[in-house]
Amino acid sequence: MTLSLPTTKSNRQVWPGLIEAYRQYLPVTETTPVVTLLEGNTPLIPVPSIAQRIGRQVRVLVKYDGLNPTGSFKDRGMTMAISKAKEAGAKAVICASTGNTSAAAAAYAKRAGMRAFVLIPEGYVALGKLAQALLYGAEVLAIKGNFDRALEIVLEMATSYPVTLVNSVNPYRLEGQKTAAFEVVDALGNAPDWLCIPVGNAGNITAYWMGFCQYHQAGLCDRLPRMMGFQATGASPLITGKPVAHPETLATAIRIGNPANWERAIAVQSASKGQFNAVTDDEILAAYQLLASEEGIFCEPASAASVAGMLKVKDQIPTGATIVCVLTGNGLKDPDTALQHSQNSFKQGIEPTITAVAQTMGF
Ligand code: F0G
Fold it and tell me: What's the CA-to-centroid distance between 186 and ligand 1, angstroms?
């Protein structure tokens, strides 16, 4: 059989990175040096087996931001924050992090030729994230304290020393992250009915809302979603209404007791008629396993809080609704949790012969 060779080029367009793609909506000028790893343009994937669990006609999709260059949504904010820091002549950046911010800050800062200082809570950063920060060449400082304490320190450091803060209190971070909402609307043709999202420091929920509102004002969508934020039960200050001194959850990315964007998150909730709810670690793990084993999507535990939360409040979902759950980080970030909580085991010690392999397979 001979295959005929194609005679025209495919109409696939090259993605230029999110600053170029959404330049008109971002605070950049022609002279801003764009530091990019071509982040953004992540897929919005239908998850029918999860939708089926809701028990009526609904459409559920996941925004898989774990497919960004460093494996999390933080790249969206970091391309902006580092480009603007470079524009301002910064030589070094600093952040506190539960892991993903440090990986993204390190990658983009090094690409821009800057030093990156990252403060992390000792013993509570997933292995993949630590490996990334180290290999990118960040100066990693593990403190004997939690994320909230690390953030207090870096806030202070950035006022006293020549280092630019790149946590989500840096306004350019949220500017970059709002592009995820643009992509959701671009893909769906409108805003979803609900946007379900894990909440830690509450920057991302704030950024998504900014993005939806900006597109709405520009006439690119004719509705706004209800913003449904989910925290882990052991780290749920937005649900209990007060800071948590000793936050605990296996979803270490959102092990945060005193979110920096607290007020803004409350404002988003009330403007969008949204809600904050807590999900237990068991519920997070169940959603994490479900996404992997039924949909083929490997996210990190904190990300699964969005799906766990949606399933928890599923009775409130209107028939016919379109729901987007944000999967903020890649499952490869946290191989320890994956191995500890896989329901699967693998067969070992098999003789290297066809017969032995076939026998083990049950043939
Ligand atoms: N999901 C993941 C995978 C995260 O890494 C984070 C935050 C969140 C959700 C929550 O987003 O803070 O904007 O509400 N990670 C930060 C970090 C704290 O240091 O990497 P948020």
Answer: 24
Between vectors from CA 193 to CA 270 and to CA 176, what angle results, nearest 5°?
A: 70
Among 97, 291, 325, 328, say which to mutate for ligand 1: greatest number of ligand atoms within 8 Å of CB: 328
Query: Which residue has a Cα nearest atom 3 of ligand 1?
Result: 329
Overall average pLDDT of the 246-265 stretch: 98
- Give yes or no for a contact between 198 and 302, defined as CB atoms under 8 angstroms apart: yes
The residue length of the chain stands at 363
Residue 140's H or E segment, with its range, is strand 139-143
Average pLDDT, the chain: 97
Give the three-state DSSP class for 227: strand
CA of 314 to the centre of ligand 1 (A): 24
- Residue of 78, 168, 178, 201 to mutate, ligand 1, most atoms within 8 A of C-beta: 201
- Which amino acid does the sequence have at 296? G
Q: Which residues of 142-165 are buried (b: 16+ CB within 10 A; e: fewer)?
A: eeeebbbebbeebeeebeeeebbb
What pairing do the DSSP bridges indicate for beta strands 275-279 and 226-232? parallel
**CA 60 to centroid of ligand 1, rounded, Å:** 22
| Under 8 Å between Cβ of 170 and 136 | no
Tens digit of pLDDT for each residue in 162-196? 999 999 999 999 999 999 999 999 999 999 999 99
Using an 8 Å Cβ cutoff, are 229 and 275 in contact? yes
Tokens of 292: 């992997």
Distances (CA, A) of 228 to 19, 43, 146, 232, 319: 27, 20, 26, 14, 17
- Which atom of ligand 1 is closest in space to residue 303's alpha carbon? 1
Ligand 1 pocket test, pick from 72, 129, 205, 299 with the greatest ligand atom count within 8 Å of Cβ, gives 72
Residue with tokens 């005929």: 4
Question: Cα(270)–Cα(9) distance, rounded to whole angstroms?
Answer: 49
CA distances from 200 to 10, 179, 351 (A): 41, 19, 48
pTM, rounded to two decimals:
0.97
Which residues have C-beta atoms less than 6 Å from ligand 1? 72, 74, 97-101, 168, 198-204, 253-254, 300, 302-303, 328-329
Helix axes 100-111, 74-87, angle to 10 degrees: 40
